[in-house]
Amino acid sequence: MRGTLLYIGQRLVLIAITTVLVSSIVFVLLHQIPGNAFLNETRTSPESLAADLRHYGLDKPLGTQYVNWVSGVLHGNLGESLVNRGVMITPLLVREASVSATVGFFALLVTVGLGLILGVIAALRQNTWADYVASSAAVVGYSVPSFVIGIFFLLIFGHYFFEWTQGTVFYNVGWGDWTQIPVPAIALGLPYASYVARLTRASMLETIRTDYVRTAWAKGLKARIVVLRHALRNALIPVVTILGPLITGIITGSVVIENIFGIPGLGKEFVTSILARDYNIVIGVFTFYAALVGLANLTVDVIYPALDPRIRY
Amino acid sequence: MTAVDGISFEIDRGEIVGIVGESGSGKTMTALSLLRLIPEPGRITGGRILYGEKDIAQMTDEEIREFRGNEVAMIFQDPMTSLNPVLRVGFQVEEAMAAHARFTRQQSRDRVLPMLQRVRIPAAKERVRDYPHQFSGGMRQRAMIAMGVSNEPSLLIADEPTTALDVTVQASIIELLRDLSRELRASVILITHNMALVASLCNRVIVMYAGRIVEEGPTRAIFKNPQHPYTWSLLRSMPRVDEVEKERLISIKGLPPDLGRMPPGCKFHPRCKFKVDRCLTEEPPLGEVDPGQLARCWVLMKNIQNPEAEAQR
């Protein structure tokens, strides 16, 4: 137990270092992009621009700006939006992150749930039509990028469903109603679900041929217990291993999906803020993503020993 | 392809029968078929396996499930891989009992510790909650045996139970098997290629070659007076402590036949020094060569005196 806590502590320190590195690199690169947030036609005088720059501290040297930003972050303040003056970024990102988390959570459910079910069925029915259907679907699923699936879903559920059902059952682009969750969540989760399905199938095929599964049959256990408790339990170990990269994939995938489906989450903000050169938001989102990926991987590593007792930290 | 063909033998209550033969001679397949555990895509294509009055080959799935581990239990060759790595040893023993109607749930739980003590696992009380990787090879095999005898089966199949173990541990495992079979009045099928083990433990021996029984009889008779050339060569290929004269050990030239390309006639004839013309074309039946001793050999049947065989003896 003490070893586990020590391990978690070490990992948290590493995540903090990574986050600082990511934010400083982004900070430097961001300022190299041509253009800035204050270029627009309503700007009348050079004096007002100077006033804006002073307001945001952008007239100071880059190093000082970064130090100021970091000290703000340590106080939980990510600064103010350059484009929408007076909008504080911390509450904005918290709100958007909760939207993204909702989509991401359901996408993860689709990924793991659908992936496991298809993988197990394909393995248990190896070389039957069920296996061929599931395996082929998985190949298609992970070959097609999520933005293609997204647009395809938009066409089917947003357009054709509207026509077929005279506007009673269809997917309405946007956010605010729980019925708007499934379509983007499935579009986001589907490619990863295919990946999980393929991995689960391969892993199950391996475990159902192991000696200990034969032992389980020889003990006279019920088929359900042999499959779930003995075969699947062990087959899950490699699946959990890829859960970390998978969550990262869902986070980056959400950037595309949220833009296609008009979901006001972090992913949409990510793109919008870069295009608007809203420095404070861009760096805030980047840093948040860096920390999130680190924490997701840490979470997976922490639950790993619960699944495989041979692993101890 | 036929792996095992025309095997026919009987086992009486309390008897210990050894099945010997080279690797690939069908010993394990014979044993697995008794529990209908032949790995895919293998099948039992014909014949009967009678347990008392019941034909195992005709049982329904539920009947065979209740039968496995309850009436007939099996101990596998490699204890390192035959226990599920993610489940506690005690639980795996409990599970074997809980799967069958013989004991109630509570009884199954209460019997775990006594079972582990019975197979002489040191400090069993502390080790019930250990995982297999915390056990040594010998202890794992003891745990497998505990699992096997936990339902007090009337037949115990031990498939090379000591092959994967240290020589020092082998003797104690064998002793344990012998004691348990006596206490439980259970019959044992011991599959091995260790003739010394057979000599010390078994009442009766079955010698297999290329998926067939080539000789069968009381242990004493087989060792004193081996009839089939294969048995004879097998015994002559082992060093003996009681041999006064120094004799060269012989090795059997050639390899056992490929299942896909079985020789015509007697399956042993390509490696047999005593073959006659008939051996090349016609497979000999299993005939009684001495009271209670059967062998599958034309030479013995026709009682042809082979000068070389005479000279060797």
- The CATH class assignment of the domain at 89-276 in chain A is Mainly Alpha
**Range of strand content of chain B:** 5-15%
CATH architecture of the largest domain in chain B: 3-Layer(aba) Sandwich
Named CATH topology of the largest domain in chain B:
Rossmann fold
Main beta-sheet annotation of chain B: 8 strands, mixed
Description:
- The complex is a heterodimer of chains A (313) and B (313).
- Chain A has 313 residues and is mainly α.
- Helices cover 75% and strands 0% of the residues of chain A.
- Chain A has helices at residues 2-30, 46-56, 62-74, 89-124, 129-143, 146-164, 182-207, 211-218, 223-241, 243-261, 266-275, 279-307.
- The longest helix of chain A is centred in the middle third of the chain and has 36 residues, at 89-124.
- An 8-stranded mixed sheet of chain B has the order 4-5-6-1-7-8-10-9, with helices on both faces. Chain B has a two-stranded antiparallel sheet with strand order 2-3.
- In chain B, α7 runs parallel beside α8.
- The longest helix of chain B has 18 residues, at 167-184.
- Chain B is globular and about 65 Å long.
- At the A-B interface, α8 and α9 of A face α2 of B.
